[in-house]
Amino acid sequence: MKIRILGSGTSSGVPRIGNDWGQCDPEEPRNRRTRASVIVSTDTTTILIDTSPDMRAQLLAAEVSNVDAVIWTHDHADHTHGIDDLRQLMHIRNGEPVRGLARPFTLEQLQIKFPYAFFGRKLYRPSIAIAPLPDELTIGDIRISVADQPHGGITSAGLRFENAGKAIGYATDFHEMTDAMRALYTGLDIWVVDALRRAPHPTHPHLASVLQWIGELAPRRSALVHMDQSMDYMRLAAELPAGVEPGYDGLEMPA
């Protein structure tokens, strides 16, 4: 089992529109960040997490043209607004809708915002067959566990993936660590985790808090994602403790 970071950036990406690189070195290719998304896969199963606005380019770069399921962590634009590109996956599947999963509130919001994707319209068939995301399920040979994470006024889905005695955690878009989250993220081989910036933020974790949680939870290897233009790759790589690294678009991590 492995996880591929499709996008390691925050909602505005790096650089921001206006060619704003902030404190990131534009000569370092790992500082160019698309919006947050990952793929977890084995030899027989592929699961996409979120449909970022950059999904088309991300899937092309990853050479992925079909998935067994899409899981949405929450309904914010930077995690959902590439949803139309699932229509092409539906065509590749000979018209079979892509399987989708989301917590009930997220599911409801997605259907309100993108009804045609789920219900079709006139000459267009539905491209997604969505269902509620339960606390535990198995897709192919990957077992998935879920915990709800505080994210401002809503929650996001925290995810744990297990296969052949290995465990990968994915935690994006949250601002505090609950007991349920601690249980979900204990005993991980890999933890890919949101670390927006160094300064505190009201709805995302900042670097110091993430490093504290990594110290407590002790994953074997961790990668930071959902980073803004203040988080320069080489500067971070030089200061992070052993076993922790800045994630980047295209990074693949085997469990």
Automatic annotation (TrEMBL):
Q: Does the keyword Ribosomal protein apply?
A: no
In which domain of life is the source organism classified?
Bacteria
SMART domains under this entry?
Lactamase_B (SM00849)
User: Where do the Metallo-beta-lactamase domain residues begin and end?
Assistant: 34-204
A GO term, aspect molecular function: hydrolase activity
State the name under which the record lists this protein: MBL fold metallo-hydrolase
One Pfam family from the UniProt entry?
Lactamase_B_2
- Please give the residue ranges the record annotates as the region Disordered: 1-33
Q: Which UniProt keywords apply?
A: Hydrolase
InterPro entries listed in its UniProt record? Metallo-B-lactamas, RibonucZ/Hydroxyglut_hydro
